[in-house]
């Protein structure tokens, strides 16, 4: 059985590898990064640490094309890329189980990815918590020069040598035993229902909506009312475009 983990990455790389350690056997690890250089350095640390401990796991980076997700437009673009990543993992790479690790990155990224997981019926959504963030941050800073050396090294052999030089410290940082994994309570939305709503929004078939569905979409800003008419909002249009691709 092929198990995939899709994880957002911020400034704390251990939340990604600690979760893989928790799951045990992971066939594919997909890490979603931004263009921020420290995030990129963190990804390289994740990649090398995984190569050291779990060499059989396929590791793949998916980049969000900006340094941070701070606007509604950027959040929709993140949602589009994350949606494609989940679909590809199931259809293109043949994963039987897809888990989301939403511990890294901005809060809006974590929330958006969690909701998207319900829309696209993933098999579990998880958060990872360190019992002492201060110690983790201090360890990361103590190893910062080595992490930068690893990032700028040209070959995997050099990167692995740097990791091996301080393997005990890197392993303690990246594969700790005291991290807590929290499963987010979720209920997947039936795919046929979700796709029907998306089709209604994308193709503006608002007359086909039931009263309860229309009221639901109205409350959430996906449609708006003008007199007796209902129209899809710009927000609703962007939402549908993201999910229909």
Structure description:
Residues 12-200 form the CRISPR system ring nuclease SSO2081-like domain. Pfam families: Cas_NE0113 (PF09623). This is CRISPR-associated protein Csx14. It comes from Geoglobus acetivorans. InterPro entries: CRISPR-assoc_prot_Csx14 (IPR019848), SSO2081-like_dom (IPR019092). By secondary structure, this protein is an alpha/beta fold. The protein has two domains: 3-183, Rossmann fold, CATH 3.40.50.10770; 191-244, no CATH class. 53% of the residues lie in helices and 17% in strands. The protein has eleven helices and eight strands. A six-stranded mixed β-sheet has the order 3-2-1-4-5-6, with helices on both faces.
Q: What is the radius of gyration computed over CA atoms, rounded to a whole number of angstroms?
A: 20 Å
Task: Specify the structural class.
Answer: alpha/beta
Order of the strands making up the biggest sheet = 3-2-1-4-5-6
Largest sheet: 6 strands, mixed
Any idea what the CATH superfamily of the largest domain is called?
Hypothetical protein VC1899 like domain (Restriction endonuclease-like)
Number of strand elements: 8
Instruction: Give the percentage of residues in beta strands.
Output: 15-25%
Order of helices and strands: EHEHEHEHEHHHHEHHEEH
The CATH first-level class of the largest domain comes to Alpha Beta
CATH architecture descriptor name of the largest domain:
3-Layer(aba) Sandwich
Number of domains: 2
**Residues in helix, %:** 40-55%
The CATH topology name of the largest domain reads Rossmann fold
Which residue ranges are poorly predicted, with pLDDT under 50 across at least 5 consecutive positions?
none
Q: How far is it from the N-terminal to the C-terminal residue, by CA?
A: 27 Å
Number of helices: 11
- The best one-word shape is elongated
- The average pLDDT value, as a whole number, equals 93
């Amino acid at each position: 059985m092929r198990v995939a983990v899709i994880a957002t990455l911020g400034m704390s790389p251990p939340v990604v590898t600690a979760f893989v350690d928790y799951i045990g056997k992971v066939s594919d690890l997909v890490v979603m990064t931004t263009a921020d250089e420290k995030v990129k350095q963190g990804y390289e640390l994740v990649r090398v640490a995984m190569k050291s401990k779990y060499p059989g796991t396929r590791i793949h980076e998916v980049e969000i094309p900006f340094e941070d997700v701070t606007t509604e437009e950027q959040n929709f673009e993140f949602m589009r890329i994350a949606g494609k990543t989940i679909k590809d993992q199931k259809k293109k790479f043949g994963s039987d189980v897809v888990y989301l690790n939403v511990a890294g990155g901005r809060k809006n990224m974590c929330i958006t990815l969690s909701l998207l997981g319900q829309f696209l019926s993933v098999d579990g959504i998880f958060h990872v918590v360190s019992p002492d963030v201060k110690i983790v941050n201090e360890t990361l800073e103590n190893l910062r020069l080595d992490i930068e050396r690893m990032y700028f090294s040209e070959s995997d052999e050099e990167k692995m040598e740097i990791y091996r030089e301080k393997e005990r410290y890197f392993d303690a940082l990246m594969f700790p035993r005291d991290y807590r994994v929290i499963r987010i309570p979720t209920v997947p939305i039936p795919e046929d229902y979700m796709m029907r709503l998306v089709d209604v929004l994308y193709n503006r078939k608002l007359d086909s909506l039931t009263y309860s569905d229309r009221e639901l979409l109205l409350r959430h800003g996906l449609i708006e009312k003008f007199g007796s008419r209902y129209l899809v909002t710009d927000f609703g249009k962007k939402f549908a475009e993201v999910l229909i691709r």
